[in-house]
Design a protein that fits this description.
Blueprint: E1 3-7, E2 10-12, E3 18-25, E4 34-39, E5 46-51, E6 58-60, E7 68-69, E8 72-73, E9 78-83, E10 92-98, E11 104-105, E12 109-113
Parallel strand pairs: 2-12
Antiparallel strand pairs: 1-3, 3-9, 4-5, 4-10, 5-6, 7-9, 8-9, 10-11, 10-12
């Protein structure tokens, strides 16, 4: 059974940093692409960052380039989203995703950027 469990969300002031974590189980983590998506109220879910397996090639939503990174630790079956210089428009529920088995999602973690 595939499980993706996110953690690390919370309330942060503009300009602050957060690190999200995603603990994966139920599949061979190192073999599959992983990603972070987010969904703000009233908006569609959107891709934030994506990392492929093997070579670790990454891509990012334009608005987060230079501020977010998406490291993965295959030995720990874990994915991270390091977020810096956070802005109010980054406020959303953030979801971990894998392309294993046609796609699976975590339950999401709330990130709120506000003073």
């Amino acid at each position: 059974q595939v499980q993706l469990v996110e953690s690390g969300g919370g309330l942060v002031q503009p300009g602050g940093s957060l690190r999200l974590s995603c603990a994966a189980s139920g599949f061979i983590f190192s073999m599959y692409a992983m990603g972070w998506y987010r969904q703000a109220p009233g908006k569609e879910r959107e891709l934030v960052a994506h990392v492929v397996s093997l070579n670790g090639l990454t891509n990012y939503k334009d608005s987060v380039k230079g501020r977010f990174t998406i490291p993965r630790d295959d030995a720990k079956s874990s994915l991270y989203l390091q977020m810096t210089s956070l802005k109010p428009e980054d406020t959303a529920v953030y979801y971990c995703w894998t392309n294993y088995g046609g796609g699976h999602w975590g339950q999401g973690t709330q990130v709120t950027v506000s003073s």
